[in-house]
Amino acid sequence: xxxxxxWLASTLVIFSIIFFMFGCIVGSFLNVVIYRLPxxxxxxxxxxxxPQCNYTIPWYQNIPLTTWLWQRGKCAGCELPIPIRYFLxxxxxxxxxxxxxxxxxxxxxxxxxxxxxxxxxxxxxxLALVTLLGGLIASTFIDLEHFIIPDELxxxxxxxxxxxxxxxxxxxxxxxxxxxxRGIALISSLMGMVCGGAIVYVVVRVGxxxxxxxxxNSEKPVRVTFATHAMHMETEEDEEDMELLYEEIFxxxxxxxxxxxxxxxxxxxxxxxxxxxxxxxxxxIGKEEFKPGxxxxxxxxxxxxxxxxxxxxxxxxxxxxxxGAFLGWQATVFSLMFSAVVGAIIGTLIMATRKDNANxxxxxxxxxxxxxxxxxxxxxxxxxxxxxxxxxx
Length: 393
Hints:
This protein is an alpha+beta fold. It has a domain at 214-307. The chain has ten helices and eight strands. It has an eight-stranded antiparallel beta sheet. A hairpin with a 2-residue loop joins strand 6 and strand 7 (288-290).
């Protein structure tokens, strides 16, 4: 028995180190995904390079955590700063992988049938959790920078959640060694996907009906560009233009972008000091009205733009559906409630300390945080809360 305890302890340490290191390596890849995916670039080609000077990074300068610290956060080619986000993503992913391994280890080891007799199940549950956690981390940082969550992560997460639910039904047993079959796990996954997407969809619709507008102000006139699929607004110097997709803006019939254009540039003409109103079906400039297809490109200079857009968009609907596919419908209900509380607290603090809403955080990171809380113990809070509501509780 003593030898078994020693073996178990040594195995725990060894695998903990392996999972952390592997997580850091995956985090390095996630940095590529975070930078390239929203820019519609290939995550495979070209090889890792500095986006500022195109310096190709050799393998020995691409070691997770170590390289950033050794080079003091600077590129070896141009010596310009490398954002600390690269270091944080690698560290967070390493810790997430380590946490997933420890969670599965202790849950399986503490049950009546120790995990060492079910290594394949433990491995599959661990793989499912690290896949989900990696997706949550990538989605969070993309959403923070670009206010979008790419379909590759959300729709891909739905498919992966269903596959892992079939491969490792214990994923829906709250990691408590509950014996559930693949059929039950599949139903739980599909219910989680539908429930998660439906709940957030309702919230999005209600939010747009009640609030419906967001105002962007600037002390100096800025250029707003209306392209085929999105509008782009200038931001502060050295920052990328803000992009708002039309599919997120024109969500209801009657949704309208309004602004006063000091200077308006069309492909074949120029106008000044005209009110602009844009819907999904029409573009009104002053007293003239056009079809969107007649104006494939327009630029306007203005100090204020009113947009029918909320912090929660359709990307959050798909994001919650992907979480539900992995964790079941209970996780989506918990995530919505928990994220709403956290979002309200942080949003209130931001609004209390700032006069504008430029730094309001999109809703995706709140959902991701709530899902992580669920993974590492939130389901126990759910059991307590649900037990209090039930007649026998």
